[in-house]
From TrEMBL:
Residues 1-20 are annotated as: Disordered. CDD domains: NAD_bind_Shikimate_DH (cd01065). This is Shikimate dehydrogenase. Keywords: NADP, Oxidoreductase. SUPFAM superfamilies: Aminoacid dehydrogenase-like, N-terminal domain (SSF53223), NAD(P)-binding Rossmann-fold domains (SSF51735). It comes from Azotobacter beijerinckii. InterPro entries: Aminoacid_DH-like_N_sf, NAD(P)-bd_dom_sf, Shikimate_DH-bd_N, Shikimate_DH_fam. One of its GO terms (molecular function) is shikimate 3-dehydrogenase (NADP+) activity. The lineage of its organism: Bacteria, Pseudomonadati, Pseudomonadota, Gammaproteobacteria, Pseudomonadales. GO terms for cellular component: cytosol. One of its GO terms (biological process) is chorismate biosynthetic process. The keyword Oxidoreductase applies.
């Protein structure tokens, strides 16, 4: 079979196991079987990034997903960057076309698609809480979509100000008196199994004032933030949507096939149950 491999360091990220399962093979392998494709997706870890990327080329591995801290470090080892990766200097997917390695960022692609499909107006003001790699993907997707009035809310001033400056938005250490119409959580607050699993990423009053709420945390599918927003009748975008759509875009890049919405839903459900 054609081989694919999500790559991470031995001390892989603290993302919940079920989200890792979706990223590391269940989703992909379920679709390969459903569509009768001769592909296999298997996770591996490495201490030696140059050797691993060289192995992808030498062994003819069709592609791989990339975890932190390799998302930026892999860039000099590639032949080309898709605009989705170039705009944020971060790669989460490598595709091998007959020895030519191209880096993509399907997180960026997924977020851009979700902002569009949910009809989120770029005229809205926003507060994006977080300053890590995923926050960078969200911030630049907002900028590309035409958003201009927003704040990066991050307690780490160095990281927060750097992201704000790079993406062209303002920075604030706390939400304070800001009254954004769009709230976006890109921190682990509300993540299952984490120390703040039961906490809201934004104050209840801010959620009540908001027009739409977006939580990138994928597990649980309904975080405290999403649950609170839904109870108030607010439109929401969930992390489960992000996780599924970015995995789908990886699948399309690897295979050139786009499964039906029903097949995608079945694969996502399978990956979370396995």
């Amino acid at each position: 079979p054609r081989r694919l491999a999500p790559m991470s360091p031995p001390t892989a990220s603290s993302r919940p196991r079920k989200v890792k399962d979706l990223e590391r093979g269940g989703f992909h392998n379920h679709l390969y079987e459903a569509l009768g494709l001769n592909y296999a997706y298997k996770a591996f870890t490495t201490h030696d990034l140059p050797a691993a990327v060289g192995g992808i080329r030498a062994l003819g591995i069709r592609g791989c997903a990339i975890s932190m801290p390799f998302k930026e470090a892999c860039i000099p080892l590639l032949d080309a960057l898709d605009p989705s990766a170039a705009v944020i200097d971060s790669v989460n997917t490598i595709v091998n076309d007959q020895g030519r390695l191209t880096g993509y960022n399907t997180d960026f692609l997924a977020i851009a698609q979700l902002l569009d499909s949910h009809g989120v107006s770029p005229g809205l003001s926003f507060a994006l809480r977080g300053s890590g790699g995923m926050a960078k993907a969200v911030a630049f997707a907002l900028r590309q979509a035409g958003f201009r009035q927003g704040h990066i809310v991050a307690r780490n001033p160095a990281a927060g100000q750097a992201l704000a400056q790079a993406s062209g938005f303002a920075w604030a250490a706390e939400l304070g008196e800001l009254r954004p119409a769009l709230l976006i959580n890109v921190t682990p607050i509300g993540m299952a199994g984490g120390p703040e699993a039961q906490d809201l990423a934004f104050p209840a009053a801010a959620i009540e004032r908001a027009e739409i709420v977006f939580d990138v945390v994928a597990l649980p599918a309904e975080t405290p933030l999403i649950r609170h927003a839904r109870a108030l009748g607010k439109p929401v975008i969930t992390g489960a949507e992000v996780a599924t759509l970015q995995a789908l875009e990886q699948f399309v890049l690897y295979t050139g096939r786009r499964p039906s919405p029903e097949q995608v839903a079945q694969a996502a459900a399978y990956s979370r149950q396995s």
